[in-house]
Every structure is written in structure tokens, then in C-alpha cells.
Queue: 2 jobs
Job 1
Amino acid sequence: MTQKWNTRTGLVHDGIRRSQYSELSEGIFLTQGFAYDSAEQAEARFIECGPDEFIYARYGNPTVRMFEERIASLEGSEDAFATASGMAAVNGALVSGLKAGDHIVSAKALFGSCLYIVEDILQRYGVEVTFVDGTNLDEWRAAVRPDTKLVFLEALSNPTLEVIDIRGVSEIAHAVGAIVVVDNVFATPIFQRSLDLGADVIVYSATKHIDGQGRCLGGVVCGTRDFIRKTLEPYLKHTGGSMSPFNAWVMLKGMETLDLRCRAQAASAQAIAEALQGHAKLDRVLFPFLKDSPYFELAQSQMEKGGTVLSIDVKGGKDAAFRFVNALEIFTITNNLGDAKSLVTHPATTTHQRLTEDQRADLGITDGLVRISVGIEDTDDLISDLLGALNAV
């Protein structure tokens, strides 16, 4: 969809469709199905639905459609399909267009559940997968083949925040006709427009920044109208991965403050990364907008800000990392991210615990690594809390 207004205006007004009651806040249409005036109308609707016509909540819903249109406008995509969770979005974006015998290339630095889909589920059903170091364009060139159907990557990897050259990967993939699917959660739709960088399909866990307040699960896939309606929609509406109307309403409310929250969080994340850099009890601070980051120049060319998440490597391994995490007062221990509250997790024992020790080592996920999701609290309070907890190590 073409973006009509500037971002903050669109996040409040895009996609609104009002009922005959002219409600101010978006309506929640909590209905499983929709009634028809006649058998002929029902027949016509099952052949082709108009823009304000619906059949069944698994196929579409007015509240869900408002959310889809608003996120498509923000992302600059032709269309979008909302899903029950971020993982339903990833699964749909990958599985809907593949069949046994197809070949895909994926960055190896993936969230644990994403890796499960690519490494276990796709290969179980006959899709050939080649994994590469996503930051190395030579590995992408070597792995992509004339029969490659799709490439998959996280714009910023979880939890080590590697930055992948989306323009470079897209050029390589498009040369053989493969589509590029990007999980853009860490970069956020506020700070990175991956479609403008050459990606074809964008995936979000709306559970993260889009809700932003830890309330509901949700996901969304953005792309061309052909991909969303002819490839993705038939798969999702028949396998049942659709978003509930109530969750869509929560996401619409979250989007109204998305730009404000993300900018405040990113500013705090930058300040925290700079305050912790070089600390005697840390081996490293991982944040793409630190000047000594190996991804600094690439990140600045792709992103407006460095995002809302950073990772630190506490000297002393798991025991030291646990002492640090347990000493925090403001930060909450949980495996979510992108929340208004500041959150912290230990990836090696939570989000990436199913990986082997060798896999974690290959991805740079050490026993001392702690992922920090920065909220909207006062920046000075957050820095004080982190420094105080490091004193406990």
C-alpha cells in the first residue's frame, strides 16, 4: 500500500473502517462467521470477496483487516496477512510456497524456533536446506543455485545482533529467481524498510514491538498482493494460523504508540551500550550502532537507529551471568523482547537451549551472553541498575 501520511499519522489513522455507528476507536468484530442476504450472495462471496466482504474469521475479519492494512501501509507493502503468532507468520511465509525437492538457503544465525522450522520441519518434508554465515556474501553466492526457490534471514540476528547485507543477499537471490524472506523483528518497521533494500517478503512477530506491552500473541507477513493472496492466504486459511479479532484490536492500539516507543527505546539502548562498553566485567557489548561494531557502517546504511536490543557477554560464564541477572531490580527476567518494560534473558539456557554446545559456540552464544531488551523507563535508572548488577558479579 502507498503510504499516504507520515509514519506517526499513519500509525493512528491508516486502515480504519467504521461501522454504521461511527465508533471512534476501532471496532472489535468478535464473530466466527458472517451472514448472507441470499444463497446467491453466499455463492458469489465464495467465488470472490470484495474489499469489505468476509466469509469466516479464519479467512478474514474487519478488525484483522484494519491491522493488516495499517501494517502494510507502514511497511510499504502491497498487502499483509495477520497470523496467530510470530512463528505462524514465519512458518506460513516459508512453507506456503515450497514443496518436496525445492532448495532454500538460510542464514544459520536464527531464533531457536525459526531454526526448528528450517532445520527440522522443512527437511523432514523433502526441502533441501543449505545454511550459510549470513554476514558473508561469498557464502551466499556459493550456496545459491539455479533451482533455489527462497532465501531466509533475520535482519538482525537473535541474540548476537549480526547485521546482514540485505541489498547484497537480495541481488544474489534475485539473479536466480529466488524470493527473499526477512524476519525484521529486531530492526523494527520503524527503523528499517527491508522491502526498499530488496527483500520480497517481511515477517514480524507482532508479539514484540507492535503490541509492545506484553499482552497478546500475533504475527504478520507483508509482501506483494500476489504472494499474500495467492500463495500465503490459501495455506494459512486452510491450516488455521489466523489472528483473532481481539488480538488484532490490541495490535491496532499498540501501533498508535509504536513510533514513540521504539524511538525512546532505541535512544536508551544506544546510551546503555555506550555506558557499558569497555566495562571491566564484560568481554564484549554487542550493539550494531557502536562505532567499534564490525557491522557499524552496514547497520547505518540500512537502519535509521540501532534498535532496542543489545547483548552483553559477562566474564565468568553462566554463574557470573546468573548473578548479574538475579541482581537486577528494574529489568524483568523473561524471554520476550520489544516490551515497554525492560527485559533480560540468558539465551544459552532459554531461547537457544535446544542447540548443541557446538552450534551455540559457532553462533557466538556463550555461557556469559545476556540479551537485554530496553523498555521505556528512565535511561539513567536503567544504566544505574545494570552497573549495580555488574557489581554483584
Job 2
Amino acid sequence: MPNELIKIDHGAGGGMSQELIGDVIVKTLGEVYVGLMEDSADVPLDTARIAITTDSFVVDPLFFGNGDIGKIAVAGTVNDLAVSGAKPRYLTLALIIEEGFPISDLVRVLESVRATALEAGVLIVAGDTKVVRRGEADGLYINTTGVGLHNRPELRLSSRRLRPGDGVIVTGYLGDHSVHLLSLREGLGFETRVLSDCAPLNGVLADLFDACGAGIRCVRDVTRGGLGTVLNEFAGDSAVDIRLDGSALPIRHETGMAADMLGVDVMYLANEGVLCVVADPAVVPSALDVLRGHETTAKSSLVGEVVAGDGRVWLQDEQGGRSTVDLLYGAQLPRLC
């Protein structure tokens, strides 16, 4: 079966469906899949509050340096739970597969799902598989739903809690994921020097919350819309301004070159393994120490501060000039994740 292609009959619900699910999907997921192949999962939740998130993934290309659609699906869902302060526990995994898709590629994606779930410490408890005709999907689409436990009552994370004096931290190079995928798609030649930053970050955040607790005002993963969009949402929600130090923004040289070639602004490019953290100034040094102690967030930088204002984000350059970072309206690039 691994050398075969997906057929419409694999989605018909009969014997071929059972072979695909049992012999390929469940077998490849191994110990991270604990479902009973029933219509719903029955799982223990020893908490009064849970976090739930869902997302769909339509990555092009499906495979890239440092990841694939399977890794993004797990990491993206885990990160969405973790930035809310929850501990990710369970995922569902739904696959929409195009007729003719190589089963060997499906196995490769599922192996990545398994490895990322193990890294993040989450279990896959339920799923669904659909097969569509040729031309009705771009190879493979994935939908995931995640459930996390709120077990840190000291946390009060909210984009409405920012106060003047708070520090703004970015945990990695901006725009690398977007530039890597664009380079693969457009043949720009940067793909070996700029890899995707895709990674699950719940372990990092657990250590950050242990060290800084209620001193962390808000956390967001910097995905679609980039840092510029995240900061505009923060500033608007809290009715404050955010001042950025342009020289402190972590932007890889090659990423900046690629953005210039494409005529796009790095501030609006997506990442899949970078966080924006706003923290009380008293805990900023501790937060940076914790973040820099993890490989995935070793490039964490203090890039700005919250100041009194009315909901704007502005960038100060090395010469003292100021420019406004507006909320992105529309899309400057095709969807990448």
C-alpha cells in the first residue's frame, strides 16, 4: 500500500477506507493516537476550564525545509492553545486527501504529525478522512482541533492588559517562514539559507509562565499578518501606543533581501514558531533569560515598549525618525499556511 496512490474508494467508508485508516494512518501515528475509532473521544479533563481551538492548513508546498504540513498542523494548534495560558493535551486530526495523492507522501506527513505530537506532549484522540476527486484539493488539507487545560489561575493573559512601561519581546527572526516558502515557490534561491521556524512552543511557554507568572501581560504567536498585525491588535485593545526600536528587530539579512526583492514589508510576514510577548518591566530580564535558554527562542530580543497613546504602533529608526506601522489591510502575499 505505501507505493500506491489514493483512490476515490479510499474515502467510500468500506474495506479500502478501513485499510487506509488502520494500516496507514493509525499504524503510522503509533502511540500518539489513542482513539477508539468511534464517532467521538471520551477523555479525562481534571480542570474547571478548558481552552479549545481549531484551524485548517493548506500549505504550499506541502514539504519544505524544517517541516511540512503535518508539523505545521500540530505545532500551530499547540501554539494557539499555549499562548492562552493553557496546557495542550488533546488534538483531533482530519485529512482531506485528493485522489492520486501518493500514500508514501501521506505516510511522510503522518510521521511528522507523530514526531511533533511527541515533542509537544499531546495525544490525538479522534479524526476523520475524506477523499475528493482530482482537482478538488491541492494534494492534502489538514484540519485540527485542540483542547488544553487551564491550570494556572495566576495567569491573566489578555491583549487588554497592556500598560505604559511594559516591554515588548520577539522570540525569533521575523518573516523566515514566509520567505522560505516563497523562495521554494518562486525559485528565489534563499531556501537553503532561510529555513521555516515552524516549531511547537508550549514547553517554552510553560517555563516562561513558571518564571514570570502574572508578570506576563499577553502572548501571541506571530502567524498570518505578521508582527505588525499582532501589535496593532494589542495597541487597539488596550488603547495604548507601542514604540518599536527598528535596530532591535530580529530580521535575518537574507530575509530582508528577499522582502526587498518582492516589494513586501517584513513586519507583515508570517512565522510559525515565533512569539510576541508583552511583559511587566519588572519581569522582562527574567523572561529574556528563560526564552534565550531554549533553542527555538534563543534569538529573543526586547524590541520596544508600551507608551501612553490611543492605539497606534510606530517604529523609530537609528536616526530618530518615526514611521507608523499601520494595520495590514488585505493581503500583501498569497496565503502560505
